[in-house]
Amino acid sequence: MRILVADAFPDEYRAELTAHGHDCTYVPDTTGSELPRTLTGHDALIVRSTTVTADAVEAADSLRLVIRAGSGTNTIDVDAAARHGVHVCNVPGRNAVAVAELTMGLLLALDRNIPDNVADLRAGHWDKKRYSRARGIHGRKVGVVGLGRIGLTFAERVAAFGAGVHALANPNRDEQTRERARAIGTVFVDSLDELARSCDVLSFHVPATAGTRLMVDRHLLAQLPPGAIVLNTSRGDLVDEDALIDAMESNGVRAGLDVYADEPAAGTGTVDSRLAKHPNVYGTHHIGASTEQAQHAVAAEVVRIVTAFASAAPSDAPPHCVNPDAVERAVAASFPTSTSSGGRP
């Protein structure tokens, strides 16, 4: 297959794709607006943060597979891909440790005021009296919203610091998740409001969906105790940013954030965010999954997806495909009598 790799991707895994007989075009700085004119002739597309719009999908003449080298697919127009018979896959779970580590780092930074410590020391200011004030993590109640791979991995780490983990009850959780949650003494509650009222830290680890958009709103923030901490390392559109600013100013809420509603799509650029500039916020640059360990784990899974897709029958969906049924319907509508089989070119 001809594969366009439109974001940074480790050299050894591109070499592995080439060794498997694929023709890789590596343009890691490709922007979403450039994709429509660069996808021509490519069967597969690998992206990380590059946006894949309906225009890009429609302009592609042979595209059959899009892989997001990460856990979400909110930067990809999955519906447009399905209409054109394009499978969309993600790589869930391989970056869980990296995101959990950053979330833990933000929590510790907020509790001990680490960034301000560093800034003052570099500026020549010594203020031990101010920076000696910290509550500590041990014994605190930490609400984890979303016990998927990332949320559960974070929960295990914060429990190791002696915090009490609280989460929403969910009868549909698999037994492995239940067992891991029980092992760290997770306390389950029935509603998000109850979680906010009973915890002084809320950490969000849910995907961007219609149901999670703006879930951190004025109502929820009003349930938090004074001085509570909000952590968001998932998606920016979970948070009503104006409401969070108001809660910080009226109730002393603090926030550790890796994502923002209007963050730049490119790897570098300028940002003008009231929320990111607020003194009660310690923020990072959407780097949750950006450890070397995580990127290698993700890249290895991308290679596995490509290999499985290339060798499967055309009717088979690749691993971690998020739109298999829609693609199947689109293909059936285009080729109602097709009975072809065998691997893909």
From TrEMBL:
Residues in D-isomer specific 2-hydroxyacid dehydrogenase catalytic domain copies: 3-323
Highest taxon above the source species: Bacteria
Domain D-isomer specific 2-hydroxyacid dehydrogenase NAD-binding span(s) in chain numbering: 104-288
Coiled-coil ranges from the UniProt annotation: none
UniProt key word Oxidoreductase: yes
Cross-referenced InterPro entries: D-2-hydroxyacid_DH, D-isomer_2_OHA_DH_cat_dom, D-isomer_DH_CS, D-isomer_DH_NAD-bd, NAD(P)-bd_dom_sf
SUPFAM superfamilies attached to this UniProt entry: Formate/glycerate dehydrogenase catalytic domain-like, NAD(P)-binding Rossmann-fold domains
Claim: Glycosyltransferase is one of the keywords in the record: no
Keywords: NAD, Oxidoreductase
Family in the record: Belongs to the D-isomer specific 2-hydroxyacid dehydrogenase family.
PANTHER family in the cross-refs: D-ISOMER SPECIFIC 2-HYDROXYACID DEHYDROGENASE FAMILY PROTEIN (AFU_ORTHOLOGUE AFUA_6G10090)
UniProt name for this protein: D-3-phosphoglycerate dehydrogenase
Organism listed in the record: Prauserella halophila
